[in-house]
Amino acid sequence: MKTGLNRYRLAIFVGILVLIVLLAAMAANLPSQLRELSRAAEDNLQWSITQIDTEFANLDAAISRQIATQSLPEENIRLRVDIALSRLAIINSGRSAEIFGDSEEARLLIEPINDFADAAIALSDAPGPLAGDALSEMQQLVSDVRPLVRDIALLGVRLGAEQAESRRTQFANQLTRTGGIAMALLVLMAILMIVLDRLLRRADHRDAELSASTKQLASTVTASLDAIVTANESGEIIDFNTSAERVFGWKRDEIVGLTMEDTFIPHRMRDAHHNGMKRYLETGTPRVVDAGRVELAALRKSGEEFPVELNITTTQSGTDTIFIAYIRDISERKINEQKLIDARDRAERADKAKSQFLTVMSHEMRTPLNGILGVLDLLKTTSLSEEQGRYAKIATSSSEVLLEHVNEALDITRIENGRLQLTFQDFDLADLMRGLMDVFVPLAQEKNLTCTLEIDATMRQRFHGDSGRIRQILTNLIGNAIKFTDEGGVHLHVSGINGLKSSSLRFEVRDTGIGIPKDKQDQVFDDFVALANSSGRQSRGDGLGLAISRRIARAMDGDVTLTKSEDTGSTFTLTLSTLSAVPEENTKSEPSDVAPPPVQPRNVLIVEDNSINRSVLNGMLTAMGHDVVEAVNGVECLKKADETVFDVIFMDIGMPVMDGIEATQRLRADRGPNAQTQIIGLTAHGREEFREQAVAAGMNRFHTKPIRLDALRSIFIELASGTPSRLDAEKFPEALTEMIDLLGHAKVRAVADTFFAELKTLIADLGDNAAHSDKTLLAEAVHKAKGAASLLGQTELQAKLGDLEHEARSDALGDLTAWADALVSSAQKAEQSIAKAIPPDSGTT
After folding, report:
1. Which of 417, 533, 674, 821 could serve as 641's disulfide partner, Cβ 3.0–4.6 Å?
2. Are 806 and 715 in contact (CB under 8 A)?
3. Distance CA 828, CA 791 (A)
4. Do residues 529 and 521 lie in contact, with contact meaning Cβ atoms separated by under 8 Å?
């Protein structure tokens, strides 16, 4: 090692000596070379300046000769002029301009010369031949400027010589400084040599430390928990640590010298490994090498295949590539992952089973409820004593409560499946609250409780939202409060904040009941949770009501919270954001003394597999004066439809042999006597589950069981008016269906016409004003249109309007002309959809 360092030092000394000799030779020869080069450059520049005088002399002679003899061609004279003028350009640019610089004497000479150039160019470029007066004028100009040209040439020579001498002096001084710097560099090199010598001594010390570190690293590799295998380019194993022995079952002495292919690479992967190593060595393109951790399979000595996590890196040993593989046995981790996957799958299956159970139970409970409520409705049409009427009313109320619980159970599955639908419409908040109190005040009085309502004055107006869902949530909260309050009462306080276009509503339901312990307050919002006190009596929670209420509220961008719960009672708060409703126009019509026309008797076919449901529905229709025929499934329905023409067919959707969907499709396709008959679908499932299938099959409308007398009367009144029509499943959404059911075809048609007129105005404004100045007004206008589109069930149009509103509010508006074109397309689709459901002339029927 020391011999190598001495040789290194000697090489440095020799190199420095050579540099000194070369620097001395350059310093001795450089000044003479520089003087010669500078002189040659200055002589050439001076020649160029003096040549100006020569060219002007030649030009003067040529003009004089031409005037005297007219023997030269005109092009020759113009060429001489151009040459002289080009020479003049020398004094205004390049090195000549640098020589003259800021010399006042040069400036006084150059200015008239430049004036001459302008005049000469004007004469030379004038149309016509350069002869006669023009030639004489040119000669006079040349004669006048020649003394100035001679003076500027002499001045340029003098100034050039002075500047050249000055530069040579500067260069000499610079060379002196350079020599000094060179000497300083030599001294510095000597110092660096000394420093380098010390560094080399330190290197000796570090080499010893590195040797010790290498031994320590070898010990670390040996003790590593990961298997570390080192192989050469041929795939031969050259090192194998202790963990590798434990993972693969090979001893180091057994495996070193063998190849990876023949030991721990599975047989099915050996060709791929061989080709990959070959490709990497030939092209240097890695796939597994230096690609980070990858999961593969490996082989133990026993032949057992197991999963491993592998990371391969490379290093160079001379010209050879060494591969280092870090291998971790992940068998246990994979087993645990599979256990987690199995647990997740079991949880998902259990959740699906729960949802399926709720769906099936709601269906099975609706079926007997259909019979119960139907019989009760029929019972109320008979002569009953006061006591019997009270009993019938109680039974009806209890059945309706049970039906509400069934609906809640079905809502759970809808929310979890993302199929919960909201119906937005204008409603009077005060009327909604008073109607709610009308239901609960008698219930509270039965327990000697008070049930009071307080509405802030600012909330006594109309809003736009899903009033049905609001009523459902408050029904759960108030009913729960009454249920668990024995003394005192329940108070509903309605407050909020009104904005220009939207409002925040707050409903507080306070009771004086038994309260909820703090450690149990979050549980009351879980599914199927009811708290019990120490005596085993249920204390708070009704299993589903609060859980559904919170989920529905959150689906409406609101929430239900427990804001207070003490020993003396609890306070549940519902918060919601709603839109302000458009003020109603004062369109009161004169009262009519004409009674509605009586319902015309109709031929009706009931298709229902449940005998009780058939009997109840038959009884209600017969009591209304209709002729009724029954069928127990879709096949029997088709047979009877071939024999008799019916005005209305009530078709159960789920039946054995042939269900109502298939039977409806066949009736519509067969073009028989009942191809155009009004078909009313009936289902014990939720409306969302079968709405699209039913309408696509050709049903005119459908109802969730149980169907009540009022609904039956509405169907036949509508049938008598001639307004029912076949609906399109894709272009006749649920929201529009419910709106038509609520308001009737005429009013919905009028609303649609107003909406599309306003939308066309908005689109026209977008197209005419591509740079809308007031983005807030634009956002408000689009927001209003979006709400109307939602009300009419036009989801595509609503989504596009929502995107435009978002861009306007976030100050990120794009091309408004493009937005106008996009909205035109969506508006046309929406207009066609509503036109199919409600023809334009239906507004007058």
Report:
1. 674
2. no
3. 17
4. no
What are 455's two structure tokens?
């509405």
Q: How many CB atoms lie within 10 A of CB 553?
A: 20
Strands 237-240 and 569-580, by their bridges, are unpaired
Q: Between 3.40.50.720, 3.90.79.10, 3.30.565.10, 3.50.50.60, what CATH number should domain 421-580 receive?
A: 3.30.565.10
Residue 759 clears pLDDT 80, i.e. is over it: yes
Distance of alpha carbon 678 from alpha carbon 697, whole angstroms: 13
Question: Which one is predicted more confidently, 633 or 798?
Answer: 633
How remote is the C-alpha of 30 from its chain's centroid?
71
Q: What is the pLDDT of residues 418-436, one digit of tens each?
A: 666 677 888 889 888 888 8
- Is 238 strand, coil or helix? strand
* Residues 528, 603 contacting (CB under 8 angstroms): no
| DSSP conformational letter for 291 | S
Reported as a pLDDT band with limits 50, 70 and 90, residue 397 is low
Q: Write down the pLDDT at residue 508.
A: 93
Q: Which residue has the higher pLDDT, 384 or 465?
A: 465
Was domain 603-730 assigned CATH 3.40.50.2300? yes
- What confidence category does residue 606 fall into, taking pLDDT thresholds of 50, 70 and 90? very high
From start to end of 134-196, where are the E strands? none
Using an 8 Å Cβ cutoff, are 259 and 298 in contact?
Answer: no
Could you tell me which of 244, 251, 252, 248 has the C-alpha nearest to residue 224?
Answer: 244
- 804-810 long-range Cβ contacts below 8 angstroms, 24+ apart: 805/779, 808/772, 808/775, 808/776, 808/778, 808/779, 808/782, 809/775, 809/776, 809/779
Distances (CA, A) of 191 to 195, 196, 205: 6, 9, 22
CA distance 200 to 14: 18
Query: What is 83-133 written as a DSSP string?
Result: HHHHHHGGGGSHHHHHHHTT-HHHHHHHHHHHHHHHHHHHHHHSSS-S-TH
- Buried-state track 798-836, b at ≥16 Cβ within 10 A, e below 16: bebbeebbebbbeeebeebeebbeebeebbeebbebbee
Find residue 570's DSSP bridge partners. 565
Tell me how far CA of residue 272 lies from CA of 265, 269, 276, 285, 779, in angstroms.
10, 5, 6, 15, 61
Beta strands in 438-500 (DSSP E): 450-455, 462-465, 489-498
Six-digit token string for 17? 């000596």
Amino acid at 772: H
Question: 225-329 has which fold?
Answer: Beta-Lactamase (3.30.450)
Here the tokens at position 162 are: 């002075």
Q: Max CA-CA distance within the chain?
A: 150
522 pLDDT above the threshold of 70: no
| Main-chain dihedrals φ then ψ at residue 629, nearest 5 degrees | -125, 145
CATH class of 12-190: mainly alpha
Return the ∠ at Cα 534 (arms to 530 and 536), rounded to 5°: 55
Q: Which residues contact 593 (CB under 8 A, 6 or more apart)?
A: none
Q: How does the average pLDDT of the chain come out, rounded? A: 75
pLDDT per position as a tens digit, 324-371: 888 888 888 888 888 888 888 887 777 666 666 666 666 666 667 766
Q: What is the pLDDT of residue 112?
A: 82
Q: 545-555 and 386-416 are packed helices; what angle lies between their axes, rounded to 10 degrees?
A: 60
Q: Where are the domains of the chain?
A: 12-190, 225-329, 421-580, 603-730, 748-844
